[in-house]
Write a structure and sequence with these properties.
Structural class: alpha/beta
Strand content: 15-25%
CATH architecture of the largest domain: 3-Layer(aba) Sandwich
CATH superfamily of the largest domain: Mur-like, catalytic domain
Strand order of the largest sheet: 8-7-9-6-10-11-12-13-14-15
Number of domains: 3
Number of helices: 16
Oligomer: single chain
Radius of gyration: 24 Å
Number of strands: 23
Length: 507
């Protein structure tokens, strides 16, 4: 691509030694990835400042350097100065790949909990109706028609990776991308250059205080999707009106707004929700006439069901239904597809076993998420049985939530076992000490088992037929991050190995 085409319309503050007819073929922010023909963008990060690596980038053959620091008039090379190099990096990559988000419909899902379930549900609904939808998020990338995810390390990838992914999806004939959008990605401008057709807000509760510092800052980061992307781009918003932050977002959103929840002011009203071991059921009432004309032929009320465990899944399902209807799917199509949906990996995922124990693995790693899953399973436990919860907290993350998670697990469980999660660089024993600080001395019974494998085995050994065992915190993850290494570790595999070792078969 010609440099002047790449930089056209760029909000530059200054430039030096630019030659517009120069050919460039990639935009990178890592000086180690520079080859001749690269545009190097110097980004000031939390650990490293890209401006320190400009000399290395030029030595490796960078054609142009884009930076936010003042230009050095004595420097040799071509330079562009911008006010925000993170944003410039994302926008330049979007242009380098041909602005692919303008060629398919991108739906962003944000919130503390429920992003993955909502995204997979929506992808399933769209694909069931003949669309070609991909899903991108915590589990990785699921291409249209694919059975397995291509794994990734971030909920929302680097801007260059996202744009290349979008370009590949367009080339493969995708019509939609449903993507989880994290608060980090919004604040770090990773999604700049993406045109969103619509967005969903699920809920907000304590998480990432190690990064954002406060609930106010966390909420402001999430709202970027709605005020800086959807509203200016003419996109629609689907917002949970039962959530206090959702009500605040909705009051300020200037665009097509679909509100869902149990509140009477919702456009999608959840009524008579029920949950048992087979899944969830509820009535959904369509109100306030914002729907596509095609829905006039359908009833304004539907009885919906889904096999996902946990009554909170009613909200995730309803959010997905709302987007599907705004994407012009028929209500009858949505109802049938929802009933056929099977499961979300690591989200109250049931692990079959020969002992008659109801074992579930879940990604819950915030106080609100642990409360949701413990409460949901607790309501399913038959009289005479109990819920046993295994939970830990990740290292190098928000420490203030640790005592809360311990207290919530203890309050809602017949037995709580506190263990390691991903301790990272912290001492696992010290993390558990902080969890235990939140316990009620007069509360329910608990155990401390630092080794996660032993904790899972102890929970299963303590359980009887009909009991429920919740293994929380890691969900779909198949690794454990220790101080100096990352090892293979899967909660569901540990359950299967335990029963296989007892001579039983997993059925």
């Amino acid at each position: 691509m010609r440099l002047d085409d790449l930089l056209e319309g760029m909000d530059s503050l200054d430039h030096m030694n630019l030659f517009g007819d120069m050919e460039v073929d990639r935009v990178v922010s890592d000086s180690r990835k520079v080859v001749p023909g690269s545009v190097f963008v110097a980004i000031p990060g939390t650990q490293y400042d890209g401006h320190r690596f400009i000399a290395q980038a030029l030595a490796a053959g960078a054609s142009v350097v884009v930076q936010s620091a003042p230009l050095d008039p004595d420097a040799t090379g071509s330079f562009v100065r911008v006010s925000d190099s993170r944003r410039a990096y994302a926008l330049l990559n979007a242009r380098m790949f041909g602005n692919p988000s303008e060629k398919l419909r991108v739906i962003g899902i944000t919130g503390t909990n429920g992003k993955t379930s909502t995204a997979l549900l929506l992808g399933h609904l769209l694909n069931s109706a003949g669309r070609r939808a991909a899903v991108l998020g915590t589990l990785g990338l699921l291409r249209p028609g694919a059975a397995e995810f291509l794994s990734g390390s971030l909920t929302t990838p680097d801007a260059a990776d996202i744009q290349q992914m979008l370009a590949n999806l367009v080339r493969e004939g995708a019509t939609h991308l449903v993507m989880e959008v994290s608060s980090h990605a919004l604040q770090q401008q990773r999604v700049a250059g993406i045109r969103f057709a619509g967005g969903v807000f699920t809920n907000l509760s304590q998480d990432h205080f190690d990064y954002h510092g406060s609930m106010q800052d966390y909420a402001a980061a999430k709202e970027i999707l709605f005020k800086d992307y959807l509203a200016p781009q003419g996109g629609y918003a689907v917002i949970n009106l039962d959530d206090e932050t959702g009500r605040s977002y909705a009051s300020r959103f200037d665009g097509l707004l679909l509100k869902y929840g149990t509140e009477r002011a919702s456009n999608l009203v959840i009524s008579e929700p029920q949950a048992d071991a087979s899944g969830v059921r509820w009535k959904l009432v369509l109100k306030n006439g914002i729907w596509p004309a095609s829905l006039a032929e359908d009833s304004n009320m539907a009885c919906l069901s889904c096999s996902l465990a946990g009554d909170f899944q009613v909200f995730n399902c309803t959010a997905a239904v709302g987007v599907a209807l705004l994407e012009s799917l028929e209500l009858s199509q949505v109802k049938d597809a929802l009933a056929a949906f099977s499961n979300v990996p690591g989200r109250l995922q049931r692990v079959p076993n020969p002992a008659g124990i109801n074992v579930y693995v879940d990604y819950a790693h915030t106080p609100d998420a642990v409360d949701n899953v413990v409460s949901a399973l607790g309501r399913l436990v038959p009289q005479g049985n109990r819920l046993i919860t295994v939970v830990g907290c990740g290292g190098d993350r928000d420490r203030s939530k640790r005592p809360q998670m311990g207290r919530i697990a203890q309050q809602g469980s017949g037995l709580s076992i506190f263990t390691s999660d991903n301790p990272r660089t912290e001492d696992p024993s010290a993390i558990i000490d902080e969890i235990l600080a939140g316990l009620d001395p007069d509360g329910g019974p608990w155990m401390r088992v630092e080794d996660r494998r032993e904790a899972i085995q102890r929970a299963l050994a303590e359980a009887s037929a009909g009991d429920f065992v919740l293994i929380a915190g890691k969900g779909h993850e198949d690794y454990q991050i220790l101080r100096d290494r990352t090892i293979h570790f899967s909660d569901s595999e540990e359950v299967e190995k335990y029963f296989a070792g007892q001579g039983g078969s997993i059925t």
